[in-house]
Amino acid sequence: MICLIFVLLISTVVSSSIYRPVVLMHGISSTAAGMEELAGWIRTSFLGIYVISVEIGNGKEDSFLLPIDKQVEQFCEIVYSDEHLRQGFNIVGYSQGSIIVRGAIERCSLPVYNLITLSGIHQGIFGIPYLLQLPEEFRELITKYAYENPVQNAISAANYWRDPNQLNRYISDCHFLPDINNERGIPNQIYRQNMIKLNAFVMTYSDIDQVVTPKESGLFMGYQPNSFNIETWNNSRQFKEDLIGLRTLWEQGKLFTFTSHVRHQDVTHAPNKDFIMKNILPFFNNTLS
Ligand SMILES: *[C@@H]1O[C@H](CO)[C@@H](O)[C@H](O)[C@H]1NC(C)=O
Ligand SMILES: *[C@@H]1O[C@H](CO)[C@@H](O)[C@H](O)[C@H]1NC(C)=O
Q1: CA 244 distance to own-chain centroid
Q2: Do 194 and 246 touch, CB atoms closer than 8 A?
Q3: Closest to 67 measured CA to CA, from 149, 166, 186
Q4: Given the CA of residue 233, which atom of ligand 2 is nearest to it?
Q5: Cα–Cα nearest to 30, from 157, 140, 155, 133
Q6: Homologous superfamily, domain 20-288
Q7: Starting from the edge strand earliest in sequence, which strands make up the sheet with 89-94, in order?
Q8: Under a CB-based contact definition with an 8 Å cutoff, are residues 63 and 27 in contact?
């Protein structure tokens, strides 16, 4: 009997201090292994924490061949089928992974506590540097025909190609980003509610990023219409109309931004370790109740 009580006591103590699991999503032309270094830092810092780096399909090719709508669907299925994640988790998306995880939160109402995006692409990308991560034959398809249906259905990067000279076409014909950014018609209130209920939304960008253009997309800022000037955040439609709840999160003190100083390809690796340990690790220091 005493033994049983003891076991119960111990399991209560242990279960009451279980760190929230962490789910990681990698970027384009990469695989789940690309996030393992970061996973290791988290595991060493929070003993017993469950960290999983998600792979969609075969990883590298599917990351650029599968439309993001499909990638989000598969991401949600993987998360739903993992019993460790039932009670909630923190989530990290790097680069293309930033909009996969945000899309998954908005569309699948995942039980996410803190959403962290590292050098994300929240206002899309436009320009050649990012496309250099793709096989050459894809570049011209995107630069010339991004908003044509067959390209939208065939290359993930077309789903967040935001051409400041064709913003109308972007909004009407780009399959993914304008939808999860609530830029089309009446804003989807479920998307918005799912963002507002986060405990924290953390965004980073690197001031020397040469892959994501504009690099400020990491902080949810994009090009102004018909221009290569960056829109200020509080002048953007996203902020003014609070389309997905960013302004609300800001007003509630739940929006955090950080500037790193690292090459895009090093964001989840050793050259960025100090930045991550100092600024990002605290957002994993929370437990399931
Ligand atoms: C987590 O938070 C606790 C309490 O504030 C603190 O003592 C501990 O050092 C933190 N752990 C890490 C790895 O930051
Ligand atoms: C808008 O943002 C800019 C730059 O961050 C800042 O200087 C300005 O004061 C802000 N304006 C308002 C009305 O908050």
Answers
A1: 14
A2: no
A3: 149
A4: 2
A5: 133
A6: Alpha/Beta hydrolase fold, catalytic domain (3.40.50.1820)
A7: 51-54, 22-25, 89-94, 112-118, 200-206, 255-260
A8: yes
Q: What are the angstrom distances between the C-alpha of 250 and each of 37, 116, 215, 253? A: 31, 15, 21, 5
**Helix, strand, coil % in the chain, rounded to nearest 5:** 50, 15, 35
Our answer on whether the CB atom of 128 is closer than 6 Å to any ligand 1 atom is: no
Give mean pLDDT, residues 72-92. 98
Choose the catalytic residue: 53, 209, 217, 260: 209
CA 234 to centroid of ligand 2, rounded, Å: 6
> How far apart are the CA of 232 and the centre of ligand 2, in A?
8
Q: Is 206 a catalytic residue?
A: no
Q: Residue type at 182?
A: N
- What 158-163 contacts at long range (C-beta under 8 Å, 24+ apart), as own/partner pairs, is 159/67, 159/68, 159/69, 160/68, 160/96, 160/99, 160/121, 160/124, 160/125, 161/124, 161/125, 161/126, 162/123, 162/124, 162/125, 162/126, 162/222, 162/223, 163/126
Averaged pLDDT for residues 143-162: 97
Question: Helical H runs in the chain?
Answer: 2-15, 36-45, 60-65, 68-80, 96-108, 128-131, 136-145, 149-152, 167-173, 177-180, 189-196, 237-240, 246-251, 273-275
* Catalytic residue from among 29, 95, 98, 206: 95
With bands split at pLDDT 50, 70 and 90, how would you rate the model's confidence at 289? Answer: confident
Helix, coil or strand: residue 218 = helix
Report pLDDT for 17: 76
Q: For the chain, what is the radius of gyration of the CA atoms?
A: 19
Average pLDDT over residues 214-242: 96
